[in-house]
Amino acid sequence: MLERGEIAPGDALLPERKLGEMFGASRTAVREALASLAGAGAIDLTGQGAVVRRRDVQTVSGAFGALLAHEQADVLELLETREIIESQAARLAAERCTMADLHRMSLYATEVDEAIAQRADATDPDTNLHVALVAAAGNRTLEQVSSVLEGAMRRLYRPTRRIMLLDVELADAFRDEHWGLIDALRRRDGQTAESLIRSHIARAREFTRRSLASEGGREEG
After folding, report:
1. Tell me: the pLDDT tens digits for 85-119?
2. Are both 160 and 202 inside the same structural domain?
3. What is the pLDDT of residue 194?
4. In total, how many domains does the chain have?
5. Which domain covers residue 51, as residue numbers?
6. What is the pTM assigned to this prediction?
């Protein structure tokens, strides 16, 4: 509707409840969609509701529909897409990242380590680390695309991610890759940064594939 101009810049969107009724979606899904559109710069969220921003919204074409349909998304395909995005983001980040970017990523990596050591949920700092990597690439369009993807990932992938980060062997590998990535970015080594993030996400994808296969086997039994 934004892309077709049915809602003009400056127009207020309907309340969450009305939007949910219109699109046959839960209020949670609508809230996530609005948050993603706000992050992509298409709307402003105010105390009175959501208002379409006075700017070009073509960069978020399809974002709303993708979020509403994300329950039918394939988590393995999402991980493949994430690998494509983040591997290129890592190369760009090696060229463009600032000391502030590196500091932010280091803080998140430390939070992941602390959560793992305490056998606590490390999903949020882990997610934040990956979001910070894409932001460090300095490409707003790439960041917007990643934001839409991450919205689907948070819903579909969070339970698997939590279990994965509690696996001692995997957690050790992920920790090494996190710090190796940050070191590669600090040294402006784009090739190593890309290689590390590819192996990192490939490891997560293989764990997820095995988990899904195991669940399928149990259901058949």
Report:
1. 999 999 999 999 999 999 999 999 999 999 999 99
2. yes
3. 97
4. 2
5. 16-67
6. 0.69
